[in-house]
Amino acid sequence: MNTIQLGQSDLHVTPICLGTMTFGEQVDEATAHAILDRSLERGVNFLDTAEMYSVPTRAETYGATETILGRWFAKRPGARSKLVLATKVAGPSRGMPWVREGGGMTGKDIIASCEASLKRLQTDVIDLYQIHWPERHVPAFGMMYYDPSKEKSATSIHEQLEALGSLVKAGKVRAIGLSNETPYGVHEFVRLAEAHGLPRVATVQNVYCLISRAAENALDETMHRLGVSLLAYSPLGFGLLTGKYDVSGTEGPDAPKEARIAKFETVRKQRWGRADALRAARRYNALAREHGLTPTQMALAFCYTKWQVASTIIGVTSVAQLDEDLDAWGTTLSPELLAAIDAVRWEIRDPAV
After folding, report:
1. What sequence ranges are listed for the domain NADP-dependent oxidoreductase (predicted)?
2. Which of 53, 62, 245, 284 is catalytic?
3. How, if at all, do strands 126-131 and 84-89 pair?
4. pLDDT for 264
5. Is 184 a catalytic residue?
6. CB count, 10 Å around CB of 334?
7. What's the pLDDT score for residue 259?
8. Helix, strand, coil: what percent of the chain each, to 5?
9. pTM, rounded to two decimals
10. What's the pLDDT at 253?
11. Residues 178, 184, 188, CA angle at the centre, nearest 5°?
12. Which of 27, 177, 209, 332 has the fewest CB atoms within 10 Å distance of its CB?
């Protein structure tokens, strides 16, 4: 795999990124370290985590994923210099009072969160520091509409950029990014950065997969014109696009207890558990099989080959899953298959937006 430059930063990453949100919950530390070893062995140079991980979130596991990564770095002294490490500062509290008091996200909050992440990760610098979700009210995590009446923003984007800028100036962060962001947000962060000599966002990490392609509805043009890179998360639609829930009943309360769709109740209710999302996934999975591919191969190849995507974030719970996802690299989708995919989308649009 060749590396890709992220935005206008000096970061160059592989087009596949290892996501780690299950480390500390679904994945124990020993397995997490084995996955990290294998990922590095296979040439992936990009890791993504967040202060709020592991997921599903709870006070007892807040910061667990970063801690597991920090212990791995301590055990593998040469690994850190080979990797681009990304983490995220949580936005205003979404029912997680343990993240920070007051529930907001001031400039001081951003700096304090970064300092805590550096300690847990046992590193001196975070290569890509991202805002996990906007401080202002936006439709995200399954919400469809913007509602001005719910706006409670207390910290300006300018203040957020100044805090991030101070971290870059101090050498604690190399580049900055956003996540779960809108076209307006990307434009405003770039505009203010250029107007005030502050760090320019390099990336936006948003959901992007066959059943959730909203990034192609204006966000892709925004990012292309502004020189910001898309990091695609949930390329397998929370497991729906692997085909493992194609048998009726496997997606409901009787699903295997360790399956994400059974374990992650809050996330399931947000978008992935919608009946329309499952029906759409089954259509795409059947299409993959008709063209001689596994559902996983087609779903990942869709992200791996889209011009909009700089790097695709894969989340796994075993070394075997990691190998399967990496082996999908190089899979091509014929023009006929891509046309069939678009025909399905025209009919059902984005049920897991």
Report:
1. 15-344
2. 53
3. parallel
4. 61
5. no
6. 9
7. 60
8. 45, 15, 40
9. 0.95
10. 40
11. 70
12. 332
